[in-house]
């Protein structure tokens, strides 16, 4: 059973903006653009005040060592994988960052939640098995420490010439994998958007726990806000965005816009106005 007090730190009034900057664990250089100076990124995001910052063990001190009583909650990733590289690997793998006691570092760093992948790639059945085994170990550790577990069920399209495994937005596949994640014991789901945002309510309904929408590659901000508005209207409780925040020229303004969408029920246009009101 997860700790509701930790979840209260993650979800303000039941909603959450989690800014993900855990991309360094995937060993893909293109994801590191904008993250070169880790301390500066953390300082900027802490000042921008999202509900949470998602990172790995090796960078979490940059958030938790800041001496202020009010700051974003820590969401700590506990796994690593090689699925995001532009070249295709002969062997796909996913492993826990801490094999013996995978959740203890998150407890010691006072995280509000841990996050782990459930990866479904075409033809990569052993990778899927590895993810299930990882989740089983982490779920048991979460129960021991009363730590909330966020599962990230990702249905991926075949490896493309553009580089990497891309999102498969098929609603049937996403719903089935989200159901599987819930069966494995997810307290929170971090799910890809469905190709048709109007289908996303099906993801929310099958999850039976809070669903946060996963972002992706950087897009035009107004486009991102319009997609986000549509998904929130389908019942999502928030967003987990990374590159659309930290790779933007004005991450503070983007954070303000997303927080306005999530917590004030703003339209995309109103959120965009909030963004423009924040100087870069």
TrEMBL record:
Under SUPFAM superfamilies, the record lists: Aldolase
What Pfam families has UniProt attached to this entry? Answer: DeoC (PF01791)
Cite the GO molecular-function annotations of the record.
fructose-bisphosphate aldolase activity
* Top-level taxon of origin: Bacteria
The record's listing under Gene3D superfamilies reads: Aldolase class I
Q: What PANTHER family does this protein map onto?
A: 3-HYDROXY-5-PHOSPHONOOXYPENTANE-2,4-DIONE THIOLASE, FRUCTOSE-BISPHOSPHATE ALDOLASE CLASS 1
Designated name of the protein: Aldolase
Species source reads Tistrella mobilis
């Amino acid at each position: 059973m997860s700790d509701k007090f930790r979840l209260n730190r993650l979800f303000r009034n039941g909603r959450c903006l989690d800014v993900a900057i855990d991309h360094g664990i995937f060993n893909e250089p293109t994801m590191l653009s904008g993250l070169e100076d880790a301390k500066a990124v953390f300082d900027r995001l802490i000042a921008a005040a999202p509900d949470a910052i998602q990172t790995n063990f090796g960078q979490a001190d940059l958030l938790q060592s800041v001496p202020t009583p009010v700051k974003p909650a820590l969401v700590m990733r506990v796994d690593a994988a090689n699925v995001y590289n532009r070249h295709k690997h002969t062997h796909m793998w996913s492993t826990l960052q801490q094999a013996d006691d995978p959740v203890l570092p998150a407890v010691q760093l006072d995280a509000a939640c841990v996050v782990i992948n459930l990866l479904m790639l075409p033809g990569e059945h052993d990778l899927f098995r590895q993810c299930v085994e990882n989740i089983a170990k982490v779920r048991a550790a979460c129960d021991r420490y009363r730590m909330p577990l966020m599962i990230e069920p990702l249905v991926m399209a075949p490896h493309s010439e553009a580089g990497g495994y891309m999102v498969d937005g098929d609603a049937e596949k996403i719903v089935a994998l989200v159901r599987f994640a819930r069966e494995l014991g997810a307290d929170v789901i971090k799910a890809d958007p469905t190709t048709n945002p109007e289908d996303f309510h099906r993801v929310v309904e099958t999850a039976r726990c809070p669903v946060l929408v996963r972002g992706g590659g950087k897009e035009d901000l107004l486009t991102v806000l319009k997609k986000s508005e549509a998904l929130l209207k389908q019942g999502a409780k928030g967003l987990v965005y990374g590159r659309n925040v930290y790779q933007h020229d004005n991450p503070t303004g983007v954070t303000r816009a997303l927080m306005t969408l999530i917590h004030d029920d703003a339209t995309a246009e109103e959120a965009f106005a909030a963004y423009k009101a924040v100087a870069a």
